[in-house]
Amino acid sequence: MKKILLIFIISFNFYAELVLEITESATKPIKIAILEKNNNSLVGQEIIEIISNDLKRTGEFEVLAFDELLSVPLNEKEVIQRDWLLLDVDSIVFIEVQNENTDLDISYSIFDVSYNDTEDKRRVLGLPDSLRQSSHYVSDGIYKFFYGIDGISSTRLMYVTRTSNIHRLIISDSDGFNEQVLLKSNSSIISPAWSNDAEQIAYVSFENNRAQVFTQDLASGKRELILSSKASVSSPAWSPNDKELAFASTKDGNSEIYVINLKDKKIIRLTENIAIDTEPAWSPDGKKIIFTSDRSGSPQIYEIDVRTKLKRRLTTEGSYNARASFLNKNEIVLVHRSAMDFNIASLNLNTRELSVLTSTKNDESPCIAPNGNVIIYSTKDGNLSYLAGINLSSKVSFKLPALYGELKEPAWSPFIR
Amino acid sequence: MIRWFTAIIFSIIVHLGIILGYSAFTSDNERPPTRKITNVNFLETEEEKLVEVKQPKKNKPKKQNNKNISEPKIETKKEIKNLDQYLKDEELQKENSSKLDIVEQISLKVIKDIENLWVRPNNVSKGMFVDFTLKLNRVGLIESIEMKRTSGDETFDRAALTAIRKYKQINYIKNIDDETFQSYFANFTLRFKPE
């Protein structure tokens, strides 16, 4: 009895515990400095420049320039915390280049200024002639340390360029370096798409005066026409397991959505409608396909279950919604016309809330980075077509340098390990 | 034997009554009124419920809800005989209410400051949160940070911890009285829960 009483008394005399809930976060970028550890080599400077540019491009990092620093420590022990607190720096990244077996390995450590200690140490093993790629891996490691999701600096971009009626299908690093021309043609090339293992691509070529879908093995360069038909075949989309390819074709009269098994070439027709059905895209689980259809009188996004063929309309807002793809299982990205502008927008499939993401005017072909946080699209300024992007978490927009007369149809590679 | 037993039970009921009555009176003064302040929570709802359930048995006219406007009128009638006591009570209540205003003001400032320091990672999922218990010294310096409940994600926890580490000292604490400091800020919880 005494015990119970005691508990009662204690509980009645307790003060209320204060809980402060932080729900909003700062929109500012993380401020860092990147230094070479115990050295000041040319290679080190080159690596630091690549990493700085990678991180700055995300809009989620502010990287201090060398001349902005108050002191230059050679290693963690030499860090004078006060100097860095004055500059409001969050962390210092120390890079160490190790030249073993002729391939350059890069070690890096992240020194937390407020904690005054090293928080993370990692090493990226070098491969022959891969200094840029190894540096991109370091950038991705730093990005993941702070933001919890994979960085995309080490991924690749595919796009189509046109200069004086010569069309090129090009693959480059995500920062535009190391361009490789995969196909050069006098006819249009559109809708390039990466397979999910990043080993193959598919695209539409008009080289035979009609739209035809080809797949191409990136290692061997071997091309394959997926469907021999006199009708148009377009908009290839790899299924998540890379065993099937969805496409649109007029082979039965008007444009319908089909799925072809790449092994046995068996074709399944998914839509049967007098309207135009095109631009298929797979859901992440491979069970559904979303596509554009004008069956209601204007282009809108529909979803079809691959097995049951049950359909439903997804977009209701606006008179033009097209070229949709899944951002995640609950959200899609599409081209939406608001007033007279064509913008990239996202649609939440649960709430049906549509958010316009871009402020440019003639946006098309949105493609999503493999970490789901960046959307790249082609847009027009006058007659010039160029690539632009938006970082979804930082809301920072960016423009890729226009080296060609026309640059369009971007496709972001999956993660390359 | 039955007499003894009845006497014991009677005694327990009387004692319980006294304790509950006493606690109801005192807790009224100590317990802050229920307020809706964005992001500031007082973890006391359970205690309040406990008292509320017990109260009707004794059918005392005093209610827990301080928001009830008609309540003071009844009290004045009853306690007008003991004017000194009534004035004292009223003063105490005023003092407590101003104390809570101070707690509220400081809390909101602290929340705003930390929100400006916290860079949220991008891997936030629905309902994710991390709790830290902070121990402050009398001048507001954060003496210890203890993770009370992890979010389950290392990056999310680390980002929150970095924001607290950057904060270092809560300057507003210096000017509050010792009792308020001990009651609310000597130990408190910071919860990072993105909307």
Structure characteristics:
heterodimer; A: 417 residues; mainly beta; Rossmann fold; Neuraminidase; 5-stranded mixed β-sheet; disordered N terminus; B: 195 residues; alpha+beta; 6 helices
In short:
The complex is a heterodimer of chains A (417) and B (195). Chain A is mostly beta strands and 417 residues long. Chain A contains 4 helices and 30 strands.
Describe the structure.
The complex is a heterodimer of chains A (417) and B (195). Chain A is mainly beta and 417 residues long. Chain A has 2 domains: 30-147, 3-Layer(aba) Sandwich (Rossmann fold); 156-412, TolB, C-terminal domain (Neuraminidase), CATH 2.120.10.30. Chain A has helices at residues 2-13, 42-58, 81-86, 131-147, and strands at 17-22, 30-36, 61-63, 91-100, 103-112, 117-124, 156-163, 166-173, 180-185, 189-194, 200-205, 212-217, 223-225, 233-238, 244-249, 256-261, 267-269, 277-282, 288-293, 300-305, 311-313, 321-328, 331-338, 341-348, 354-356, 364-368, 374-381, 384-391, 397-399, 406-412. In chain A, the strands form 7 sheets. Chain A has a 5-stranded mixed sheet, with helices on one face. Chain A is globular. By secondary structure, chain B is of the alpha+beta class. A 3-stranded antiparallel sheet of chain B has the order 3-2-4. In chain B, a hairpin with a 5-residue loop joins strand 2 and strand 3 (142-149). In chain B, helix 1 (2-30) crosses helix 2 and helix 4 crosses helix 5 (154-167). Chain B is extended, with a radius of gyration of 22 Å. Chain B starts with a helix and ends with a strand. The interface between A and B is large, with 36 and 57 residues. Strand 1 of chain A pairs antiparallel with strand 1 of chain B, so a sheet runs across the interface.
Mean pLDDT of chain B: 75
Shape of chain B: extended
Termini Cα gap of chain B: 64 Å
Q: Which class do the helix and strand fractions of chain A yield? A: mainly beta
Q: What kind of sheet is the major sheet of chain B?
A: 3 strands, antiparallel
CATH T-level topology of the largest domain in chain A: Neuraminidase
C-alpha-based Rg of chain A, rounded: 26 Å
User: Which residue ranges of chain A are poorly predicted, with pLDDT under 50 across at least 5 consecutive positions?
Assistant: 1-14
Strand proportion of chain B, as a percent range, falls in: 5-15%
Mean of residue pLDDT of chain A?
A: 90
Question: How many domains make up the coordinates of chain A?
Answer: 2
Distance between the termini of chain A: 67 Å
Order of helices and strands of chain B: HEHHHEEHHE
- Apparent shape of chain A: globular
Provide the spatial order of strands within the biggest beta sheet of chain A: 3-2-4-5-6
SS-derived structural category of chain B: alpha+beta
Oligomeric assembly = heterodimer
Helix content of chain A: 10-25%
> Count the strands of chain B?
4
Largest interface: A-B, 36 and 57 residues
Tally of helical runs of chain B: 6
